[in-house]
Amino acid sequence: MGRVLVTLTAAAAVVACSVATVAVRRRMKGKRKWKKVVGILRDLEEACETPLGRLRQMVDAIAVEMQAGLVSEGGSKLKMLLTFVDDLPNGSETGTYYALHLGGSYFRIIRVHLGGQRSTLEVQDVERHSIPTSLMNSTSEVLFDFLASSLQMFIEKEVFNLSQPVKRELAFTFSFPVKQTSISSGVLIKWTKGFAISEMAGEDIAECLQGALNKRGLDIRVAALVNDTVGALSFGHFHDPDTIAAVVFGTGSNACYLERTDAIIKCQNPRTTSGSMVVNMEWGNFWSSRLPRTSYDLELDAESMNSNDMGFEKMIGGMYLGDIVRRVILRMSQESDIFGPISSILSTPFVLRTNSVSAMHEDDTPELLEVARILNDLGVAEVALKVRKLVVKICDVVTRRAARLAAAGIAGILKKVGRDGSGGGRRSDKQIMRRTVVAVEGGLYLNYRMFREYMDEALRDILGEDVAQHVVIKAMEDGSSIGSALLLASSQSVQTIQSL
Ligand code: ADP
Ligand code: MG
């Protein structure tokens, strides 16, 4: 009996000992895995670094590329497209106008009434709908008939009664690269932001819409074809004549600004009355070897529909930030099991959207419950708080890089037009610095506070406080749609400029 007890006790001791060994091994393995993911985070931080010196190099590179793009067609990755817009709205416009805006994620229809004064601008109706994904890969006929039918429904809902039939004037706000041939016509250069309707490159966009409207018997004239950034600039200028540039941070990203016509060397005969013209930079395609590119960016680009294209947009556009974050989390989950078994949802491109990134980034609950909820939606359930904190950090690194690069882009424009305080090497910067307004719109900027804050901070750092106090960033909602209608109103009194 006594011997049996001794044997049992010894056996229990052996079991306890091996359980302890397993626990120690597991802890060590856990520590190694944690170290591994922390290493992945450190590598990401390092690869995304944007110190001030690097941002200043970006500013210089952007200004140089802008210049190159103005000198010759194809002289730069920045297309620096002519818009034939030389006069921006100033508040004196009158009449009722419509705008139909095809963005990267949404299309909008608006009607505005202008009474000849800024204060009498009346945005009478606004409709905003998601663009069905199926439409992005459909045919030109399907796309334009969809837009025409949406417009038809909008008009049929109008409550006011017209005593006699009126021809409606419409601005088509189009958020993709177009080679304009006049203020009301232009051909598609290429699709971006996930759109792929193959037979359309080279087609006149305004004609396509006009054809679809005619087919439905709608008495609407597509009287202006306006890039969304140009719409935003028009809206900004309508309210504040010091507005000289506009930037969109939405699904994608782009900018335009007012340039002196004599600086647009590739345009032999711009024939503008104001001596300046709005240039659509198409800055999403900016590239420099100094951009802080990571392996995640390379993968994203390689797997995208437009690889080797739109490199800048893929680092700062709302369509892409979520996917960069997703790729980092996926890498971590592949190299350790801190996220549990690899989730097939997490392996799906674009499943993590940038609005979820901002929701995680700005989660202020002590337990990071929003992070837990979003990870759960991605098939990653019940991760420890320290892992959730790690995810927040990833969001921070990716968004901070985007916002700082965006700031460098804005500073690049200011440098190009001599509003960055460098004064062309002159010392009397302060005296010559004029108030400069940059209109900014887009869902990323308007809805993601951390993006805004990082961008504003970086812009102040790049410009320095003395110059930054003269630069105003003005956020505006629906600016590009409303602004296009305003531009159409102001262009009614101006002769359409002939194509080159
Ligand atoms: P579009 O690009 O169609 O003109 P928006 O300017 O409204 O549309 O931008 C939509 C994009 O803005 C979304 O695809 C998303 O990337 C980004 N976005 C919208 N809401 C948020 C948010 N809360 N946080 C971060 N990004 C957002
Ligand atoms: Mg937009």
TrEMBL record:
It is found in: Mitochondrion outer membrane. InterPro entries: ATPase_NBD, Hexokinase, Hexokinase_C, Hexokinase_N. Pathway: Carbohydrate metabolism; hexose metabolism; Carbohydrate degradation; glycolysis; D-glyceraldehyde 3-phosphate and glycerone phosphate from D-glucose: step 1/4. The keyword Hydrolase does not apply. Residues 245-489 form the Hexokinase C-terminal domain. Its EC number is 2.7.1.-. One of its GO terms (biological process) is glycolytic process. GO terms for molecular function: ATP binding; D-glucose binding; hexokinase activity. It is a single-pass membrane protein. Residues 41-234 form the Hexokinase N-terminal domain. GO terms for cellular component: cytosol; mitochondrial outer membrane. Keywords: ATP-binding, Glycolysis, Kinase, Membrane, Mitochondrion, Mitochondrion outer membrane, Nucleotide-binding, Transferase. Its main location: mitochondrion. Belongs to the hexokinase family. This is Phosphotransferase.
